[in-house]
From TrEMBL:
<feature type="domain" description="CBS">
    <location>
        <begin position="103"/>
        <end position="165"/>
    </location>
</feature>
<dbReference type="InterPro" id="IPR015875">
    <property type="entry name" value="IMP_DH/GMP_Rdtase_CS"/>
</dbReference>
<dbReference type="InterPro" id="IPR013785">
    <property type="entry name" value="Aldolase_TIM"/>
</dbReference>
<dbReference type="InterPro" id="IPR000644">
    <property type="entry name" value="CBS_dom"/>
</dbReference>
<keyword id="KW-0129">CBS domain</keyword>
<dbReference type="Pfam" id="PF00478">
    <property type="entry name" value="IMPDH"/>
</dbReference>
<keyword id="KW-0658">Purine biosynthesis</keyword>
<keyword id="KW-0332">GMP biosynthesis</keyword>
<dbReference type="InterPro" id="IPR001093">
    <property type="entry name" value="IMP_DH_GMPRt"/>
</dbReference>
<keyword id="KW-0630">Potassium</keyword>
<protein>
    <submittedName>
        <fullName>IMP dehydrogenase</fullName>
        <ecNumber>1.1.1.205</ecNumber>
    </submittedName>
</protein>
<dbReference type="GO" id="GO:0003938">
    <property type="term" value="F:IMP dehydrogenase activity"/>
</dbReference>
<keyword id="KW-0560">Oxidoreductase</keyword>
<comment type="similarity">
    <text>Belongs to the IMPDH/GMPR family.</text>
</comment>
<keyword id="KW-0520">NAD</keyword>
<dbReference type="InterPro" id="IPR046342">
    <property type="entry name" value="CBS_dom_sf"/>
</dbReference>
<keyword id="KW-0479">Metal-binding</keyword>
Length: 499
C-alpha cells in the first residue's frame, strides 16, 4: 500500500514568524548574513561561505557572466546555466574568473547627437556622473568623448545643447589601451587628476572604464565574494549525461563549485556523477533537487557538498501539474533541515541546504532561512534585473523582462542543435513568461537584505544560525492570511482590497 503523509504539504505563505525579545544591540547594522554553502566538519571553517544567502538559478534566463559578476560583487553566487554547449558555458565561467576588478563596462553611454537633457536624465537614472560618448551609444562602441559634470553648467547651458559641443573629445582624453594594468590606470588617474580613465582597444572601441573611486573598490563592495587569487567566485550547473566532458572543461576554466541541475535528484545517476567528480577533481559539488529526508540522505551519502531542496515550486515550473510530483516548499525544507541537523549531531559533518524556487515575497527568504535553509536559489527574483541575460521589452505601459523555464521547449532548443536531431520535448515542465522589470540588482538586493535583517532583529537574531535556533514559527489559517494584506479599505488606485 502507498505511504500517506499525515500532514498536507505546505508552503511559505502559510507561516508567520513571531517576534522574540529584541535586545538593544540587535539592530540591522549588527546582523551578519554570512552562510556556509559547502559541507564542513564541526569546529572547521567551510571552504566557501556566502556573505549574503543568495544564489541565482541555473537558468538561461538568469545566470550568465554578467549576473555572476554583479552578484559576486554583492556577496552572493551565480550558477552559470548548463543548458548550452560546454564551450559556451566554459567561456562564461572564464569571463567571470578573468574579470578584472576595477575595470568596469560603462553603464552610462550616449552618442554625440544626444543632448544635455539626455545626459541629465541618464545621470538621474543611473546615479553616475560620467557618461561615455560612443558612435552608437553602446558600451563597446567607438569612443568619441567623455562627459562629466565639469563639462556643463545647467544654469547657463541650453538643455538642447548637443553632447558633441561640450564633451571632452577623444583627441583630448587621457586613456589606456588593452593590457593596461589597474595600477597603471590608477597612476594615470592620479597624475592627471582625473575621475576616470577609459580603456580602448586598437580600433578606438571602448572596452572598460576605470574610476578613481575603484581604487578603494573593496570599500564599495565590502561583501564581494573573492577566491584566493582575488577573482570572483562562480558556480556552474551540470547534468548527469555529459559530465565527463563538461566537468573537466569547467574545472580547467576555474569554476569554484558545481551543482547537478535536475528537478528530481534522488537518482543513481546523481550518485554516479557526484562520485565521478569527487574521485577526479578537487572541486565542490552540490546535488538535487530533493523534497524529503530520504532523497537528502541519499545525496549526502553519495558525497554531495550541499543539497538543493525543492520540486515544483518554481514560478515558471509546471512539474507538479504535468507529472504530479513535488511537495510544498516549506514542508520539504522543514523535514530536510531536521535531517541535516540530526546528521550533523551524529557525525559532526554539516551539509548545507539550499531552498530552490518559489520565493514570491522577500519575507519568504527569511522564512526559508528560519526553517533551516542555509541559502536560497532564485530565478524569477533575479530575472527582473538589468543584469539578467534576457531582453527588456515594453508591454503596454510597463517594462518587462523575459523569463523562461529550463524545462520549456525554448530552453531545450540548444540540445537539438548541439546533440543532433532530437525532436522537441514530449511534454514541457515549465513555461515561457515575462516578469516585471525591476532595475538594477544592487539596489534591489539592498532592499531585500534590509528587510531580512529587520525581521531577524524582530526575532532577536543576529546570525542565520541564531535565527534557525531561535525562530518561533506559526501556521496561519486561511482567514488570517486575508488579514495579512490590506483589507477592508478602498485602495487609492481604485481597487478594492480583500474583505
Ligand atoms: P523561481 O525562483 O520561483 O522562479 O524558481 C526558480 C527555480 O525553478 C529554478 O532554480 C529551478 O529549480 C526551477 N525550474 C527551472 N526551470 C524549471 C522547469 O522547467 N520546470 N524549474
Amino acid at each position: 500500500m502507498a505511504h500517506y503523509y499525515k500532514e498536507p504539504s505546505r508552503t511559505f505563505s502559510e507561516f508567520l514568524l513571531l517576534p522574540n525579545l529584541t535586545t538593544k544591540d540587535c539592530i540591522p547594522a549588527n546582523v551578519d548574513l554570512k552562510t556556509p554553502i559547502v559541507k564542513f566538519q564541526k569546529d572547521e571553517k567551510p571552504a566557501i561561505e556566502l556573505n549574503v544567502p543568495f544564489a541565482s538559478a541555473v537558468m538561461q534566463a538568469v545566470s550568465d557572466q554578467h549576473m555572476a559578476i554583479a552578484l559576486a560583487q554583492c556577496g552572493g553566487i551565480s550558477f552559470i546555466y548548463g543548458s548550452q554547449t560546454v564551450a559556451d558555458q566554459v567561456e562564461m565561467v572564464r569571463k567571470v574568473k578573468e574579470y578584472k576588478a576595477g575595470f568596469v563596462v560603462s553603464r552610462s553611454n550616449l552618442t554625440p547627437n544626444h543632448t544635455l537633457r539626455d545626459v541629465l536624465a541618464l545621470n538621474e537614472r543611473n546615479g553616475h556622473s560620467t557618461v561615455a560618448v560612443t558612435d552608437d551609444g553602446t558600451p563597446k562602441g567607438k569612443l568619441l568623448g567623455i562627459v562629466t559634470s565639469r563639462d556643463y553648467r545647467t544654469s547657463r547651458d541650453s538643455l538642447d545643447k548637443p553632447v558633441s559641443e561640450f564633451m571632452t573629445p577623444y583627441s583630448s582624453l587621457i586613456y589606456g589601451t588593452l593590457g593596461t594594468t589597474l595600477s597603471e590606470a590608477n597612476d594615470l588617474i592620479w597624475e592627471h587628476k582625473l575621475n576616470c580613465v577609459p580603456i580602448v582597444d586598437g580600433d578606438q572601441n571602448l572596452v572598460y572604464l576605470v574610476f578613481r573611486k575603484d581604487y578603494d573598490r573593496h570599500k564599495e563592495n565590502p561583501l564581494e565574494l573573492l577566491d584566493n587569487n582575488k577573482s570572483y567566485i562562480v558556480g556552474a550547473g551540470i547534468n548527469t549525461k555529459d559530465y565527463k566532458e563538461r566537468v573537466p572543461a569547467l574545472v580547467e576554466a576555474g569554476v569554484d563549485i558545481l551543482v547537478i541541475d535536475s528537478s528530481d535528484g534522488f537518482s543513481e545517476w546523481q550518485r554516479e556523477t557526484v562520485q565521478y567528480v569527487k574521485a577526479n577533481f578537487n572541486v565542490k559539488i552540490g546535488a538535487g533537487n530533493v523534497a524529503d529526508k530520504e532523497g537528502f540522505m541519499y545525496l549526502v551519502e553519495s558525497g554531495a557538498d550541499f543539497v538543493k531542496v525543492g520540486i515544483g515550486g518554481g514560478s515558471i515550473c509546471i512539474t507538479r501539474e504535468q507529472k504530479g510530483i513535488g511537495r510544498g516548499q516549506a514542508s520539504a525544507l522543514i523535514e530536510i533541515a531536521e535531517a541535516r541537523d540530526a546528521y550533523f549531531e551524529e557525525t559532526g559533518t554539516y551539509v548545507p541546504i539550499c531552498s530552490d524556487g518559489g520565493i514570491v515575497h522577500d519575507y519568504h527568504i527569511t522564512m526559508a532561512l528560519a526553517m533551516g535553509a542555509n541559502f536560497v536559489m532564485m530565478g524569477r527574483y533575479f530575472a527582473r534585473f538589468d543584469e539578467s541575460p534576457t531582453k527588456k521589452l515594453k508591454i503596454g505601459n510597463n517594462y518587462v523582462k523575459e523569463y523562461w523555464a529550463e524545462g520549456s521547449n525554448r530552453a531545450r532548443n540548444w540540445e537539438r542543435y548541439d546533440l543532433g536531431g532530437k525532436q522537441g520535448l514530449l511534454f514541457e515542465e515549465g513555461v515561457d513568461s515575462y516578469v516585471p522589470y525591476a532595475g538594477g540588482l544592487r539596489e534591489n538586493l539592498d532592499k531585500t537584505t534590509s528587510k531580512i535583517k529587520s525581521t531577524m532583529c524582530n526575532c532577536g537574531a543576529k546570525t542565520i544560525r541564531g535565527l534557525q535556533s531561535e525562530a518561533r514559527i506559526t501556521l496561519v489559517s486561511s482567514t488570517s492570511l486575508v488579514e495579512g494584506g490590506a483589507h477592508d479599505v478602498i485602495l487609492k488606485d481604485g481597487s478594492m482590497s480583500a474583505e
